[in-house]
Protein 1
Amino acid sequence: MFRGVTHINLDAKGRIALPSRYRERLSGICDGHLVVTVDRDHCLLVYPLPEWEHIEQKLVRLPSLNRSARRLQRLLIGHATECQLDGSGRILLPPPLRDFAGLVKHTVLIGQGNKFELWDEAVWSQRRDEWLVEAADSDELPGDLESLSL
Amino acid sequence: MFRGVTHINLDAKGRIALPSRYRERLSGICDGHLVVTVDRDHCLLVYPLPEWEHIEQKLVRLPSLNRSARRLQRLLIGHATECQLDGSGRILLPPPLRDFAGLVKHTVLIGQGNKFELWDEAVWSQRRDEWLVEAADSDELPGDLESLSL
DNA sequence: CTCTAAGTGGGGAAAAGTGGCAAGAAATGG
DNA sequence: CCATTTCTTGCCACTTTTCCCCACTTAGAG
């Protein structure tokens, strides 16, 4: 399970160095093979390759003529790019993905269980503040969430 | 599985150079024989020949008297054009297909599992942004998608 | 305070992408 | 039927990007 927030700087070539505490596990799980794709909230998702392949299988089995299915396939598989950790534990983010998430220099990497999320730092803190406000306002939660005990 | 976005420029003769990371696999699967056809969303579909033949078989078996079936056959089989990778890993797109998808110079190649999609870059990013908004709005997804966990 | 390890930046070699040129084939007109 | 022109296709060279390696800086631990 990946957890926690880490501030990372993109270098001039668009590379990010993953925090060292994850590196050993990533070498073990996927030999440094990662897949980066997009998320609806204009951030990037980073999966270990085997984890991603599992999701991809579910996606490709969806019916091709269904509009929502096509949309999801195009967004997720369409943007999924395989990246390899280099000798210094860094990955190079392809320009299209960098542009999509508006990443310039200051970014944050968020551990999210089986994957990471990568945000522009300013966007992240702004969105987080919005969520806090929204969450405080709305007490009505959908089904399963009602019974959730933290 | 093909995945990921790549920006490619059409040259003055209407050729596109496929990204090198796919070339070896394409040589293996289909010896450089590709089939290009159209999609309902005004982009082009690029299949390795064996993969296309498989799809074509399914299409010709559809009931000929069904209007939507005829329509699909005319669109897909009717526009399917065989293209061969040249020595530099490029394919020449026939002018009718280029026109159909409105390809001028800046294009994007999208990996979609067993095939590629080829879009005009401007059209692609516009459509993608629309999908992101729609996807955020519509939570009603067909069966399997509901339970999809990314 | 020092030593170590991680994060960051940069330089250089190699490879990929892109545009142009030229030779060959096809088509058209004389 | 031959000659000229146009279009096509393969090849080559230049430019840009990518990848690998090394060095410097900063933070943290001993």
Protein 2
Amino acid sequence: MNEVGPIAPPSGIRQRNELAAMRALYRHGRLSRAELARILGLNRSSSGHIVAGLTVEGLVREVGTAEQAPTSHAGRPGIMLELTPDAAFFLGIEIGVEHITVVEIDLACRIVNNRMEPFDGPSVDVETAVSRAVSLAFDTLPPSHRGRCEGLGVAVPAQMDRKGLINIAPLLGWRNIQLADLARAAVPAQMPVMVENDANAFAIGASYGAREVHSGVTLYLVMESGVGGGIVVDGTLFRGAQGLAGEIGHLRVNGSDAPDRSLESVLGLECILRAYRAISTQPDPNLATFLTDVRDRVPGAVAIAEEWARALAYGLIQAGRIIDADRVVLGGSVAALYPLMAARVLHHIRSMQEESFPLPMIQTNKDETVGPAFGAACLLHQRYLSADAARLAEDAP
Amino acid sequence: MNEVGPIAPPSGIRQRNELAAMRALYRHGRLSRAELARILGLNRSSSGHIVAGLTVEGLVREVGTAEQAPTSHAGRPGIMLELTPDAAFFLGIEIGVEHITVVEIDLACRIVNNRMEPFDGPSVDVETAVSRAVSLAFDTLPPSHRGRCEGLGVAVPAQMDRKGLINIAPLLGWRNIQLADLARAAVPAQMPVMVENDANAFAIGASYGAREVHSGVTLYLVMESGVGGGIVVDGTLFRGAQGLAGEIGHLRVNGSDAPDRSLESVLGLECILRAYRAISTQPDPNLATFLTDVRDRVPGAVAIAEEWARALAYGLIQAGRIIDADRVVLGGSVAALYPLMAARVLHHIRSMQEESFPLPMIQTNKDETVGPAFGAACLLHQRYLSADAARLAEDAP
DNA sequence: ACATTATGTTGCACTACGCAACAAATAAAA
DNA sequence: TTTTATTTGTTGCGTAGTGCAACATAATGT
């Protein structure tokens, strides 16, 4: 309700405007002071002051005017500005069932380091899992970046509230755990720590990390062995009460055969491969051979894919009725099946829909680097550039 | 993404702080200057200046210090402030299939006038429907309020984008209509006009109008002949791309009998009454007699109610998987059935849920005055007290 | 009656922004 | 080539809003 909130000290105004300037620079990449002023709705002189402040802080730098040719203006060319990439770094961790993944991004939101390590999630208790993950992350962080690490994000397959209290993490066997506090305690330095559901982290990574601010509702699906989902509204993650918003995989589907299965059990990699192994003549049936078989119209594979397309259509329709998304982005390895089956999925959607409900735009995620760990890091990047972070900074002293 | 945005002129700060003060006064009802300062995070002196400004504008007034006894402070008692109720008025219209309803609220968000008129929606074209509705609204508005009417909201059973462009309104037979512009043209004076889906309007009315700012996700259901739904997140309406978010009534349900029916056709008043009339021995079977029959455990009625409870549980589970609500509020006449069937609904939810997903809190809406028309008016009240309105005011001159 | 506590008000300092003017640098026109 | 037009970045000044500290005010508790 208090969307904006009051603005206390004049210095707070400057801080907010500096953050707004940095957000604009993040989104647009490179801007001159004048362009920045226009985007922010400020006077050129104010823009200049703000940039001056950010420059002495080392957060923004001028970039050689060499490459501003495309702007065919008819006046003095502006000095392009950009975020100084190595002014701040953010760590993202994914604690999965089989792996721990670490990603380090810089202020430009580019990946500068990443690492993956096998991990047997269910057999490890929380404390050691967190300490292993955090120490792996800070081992990956180069010593020269230590002092400029401005946040740590942890993505976990769990439901949790906004304060990082995990209610339950079925795949890891965790229950009622204050993961955020646990992680904070394991971190060597003082820095913001956030915890997020892995599917949500993926969603924010695919959205925020790609610098795209689709104003509307986007449903991100991650289809691996399980099926997760996240919702992004106008560039902001919509968590839901327990971080489970968009978890389309747990939708109930009373399909043709057994009643009351979860959608995940039909859409997931496991289900596809099980059915495919039963009918395949390939020596080593796997997802890749399945995809080629579908492409080659091998009847058994096509039938499996058809079932998959029907289930996906069903899930998208149900989700569409409730969150009214105008865009769907498919990720995960199984997403590669979609381009082959797009026509069938759309056909099923149309035949199941009652009336002229608008179809969401359906895309597949191209950038393979995005994942929950990257998204978790993005969450802290976003927070660093948001006014809430400033609020907390005020509370501290 | 640009959640806050830059703050341009110093005078803009004052405006924002004045709005924040008014929001606080709306939420808390009565506050002293010092309390206001604490809530807003401002200095007492600033609070005093802001209040002074609002007082000369007539938006805020001091209320006799008679009634501040409960605050057992040990110092000088504060002078209580409140929004001047008749400083501004807002009109809300619901264009339904059978009625046109008009509600007028004041700055305190209290209903000061309302009116209802029969209407045969499908037989009337849009232009005349809008002009009839708008003139009914401005007839209801007392002449002395004319100059202080600060907004008009229109609730319609339709899907529309954020700018008031209706894609389709099946029940009224409208298609591709710029309803917001149409309404703006019909309004005698210049004022903000908003259009919203009726279920969404109901939801914001039940949430915002009740001054409750449940921080979390609430799903509002309106169960009449049709079933609509709206989602409110942290006190703000979540529309979705086409204003259809929360439209649980259109969920597909392949129930025990016919496959692929919409949930609405099972949960709605029509379905209940049709089934009830077929088995009832009452002379005039209607919803009231049905409810008493259910209370008296008349087997046929209980069976119908049981089916209803199952369908409701199914819908809530499906919706819960996608928006992850922590609260559900049931409205509309059929909601009266819920208290009788609460245990069964919860039972079904538990039996259909796979694991320990947290159950949302389920309530029935008590305040009978809230409805789409009231909610539409609330939408403009909210807008009047929001920073966006100020933005637009800046754009105008 | 006195101390204590909290409120509302006032004068002063600080700071951020807008405005206008100016120098700089480029493109288009003469 | 020179001139004009256009856009950019900078600087000095005025405006305005907030914070701070001090003070008068009005209650409670001893």
